[in-house]
Amino acid sequence: MVAFKNLREVNVEKIKSIPIKDSVKAIKGNWPWILVVIANLIFWIALTIRLSTVVYYCQYYLGDKSLTVFINGIMLVQVIGMISIPLLVKRFNKYGTMILGFILVAGGHIGIFFVGTNIELMIVFWIIASLGQGIACSMPFAMLSDTVDFGEWKTGIRASGFLTAIGSAFCIKAGSGIGGFIPAVVMNLFGYVPNAVQSSTALFGIQFVFTWLPAIIFLCGIIPMLFYRKYEQNENNILLDLAKRNS
């Protein structure tokens, strides 16, 4: 409702639709887009693992399945991370803000591992991770539009819809599928048995897939962002050159 009330259409020109084959050409040489897609895919894989294993962690490791609803409800604090993005970008740039999100959510899960069954401290680190989740979840949507500009500058093709759809919807779907598959495999390797008393090895496996596994994957998302830094440093020059061409 807020968006409907306040948004105004600025671009009133009709844009000619681009064939799929030309849209695919916009990917060629668009390495900033590739880096954002990789980072976003990594995020959704780790996020799915984070969200899908919390119920196992609460039920078997903490011994109280009802905690799942409460802990998932606390995750709403991620909104604070989302609305803080404009301030963070001014301080750390876009790539740095994305890295900060990855560090917070990974650090939160590592902290949860070390506090063990201390529920109060576990909640504190869960909040930290949720703040990072809000930041890292939102940043790719802002960065994808920048990579569309780079694609136009590089190839002369502005495939906004195609690049944005692949960079967002595809990453969400693929990441959710992969992230749902990995923890099941890992827990089975540790001897997890559904709806049964778990062995000490299985309990460690549940703890591992909820803490270290998503943390490691989140931290891997930092790598493409370190390379993205080079593009962001030249972003203004690219936009100026693109504006001259279009004029």
How would you characterize the overall build of this protein?
This protein is mainly α and 247 residues long. Helix 3 runs antiparallel to helix 4, helix 3 runs parallel beside helix 8 and helix 7 runs parallel beside helix 12. The longest helix is centred in the middle third of the chain and has 37 residues.
Concise summary:
Helices cover 80% and strands 0% of the residues.
What descriptive keywords fit this protein?
247 residues; mainly alpha
Strand % is under 5%
- E-strand count: 0
Q: What integer is the average pLDDT?
A: 92
Label the structural class: mainly alpha
Number of helices: 12
Name the helix and strand elements from N-terminus to C-terminus, one letter apiece.
HHHHHHHHHHHH
* Spatial extent as radius of gyration: 21 Å
| Low-pLDDT ranges | none
Percent helix range:
over 70%
Shape: elongated
Instruction: Give the termini separation.
Output: 36 Å
Largest sheet: none
Question: How do the helices and strands line up, and which of them pair or pack?
Answer:
Blueprint: H1 2-6, H2 20-25, H3 31-61, H4 67-74, H5 78-83, H6 85-115, H7 119-155, H8 160-189, H9 200-210, H10 212-220, H11 222-233, H12 235-246
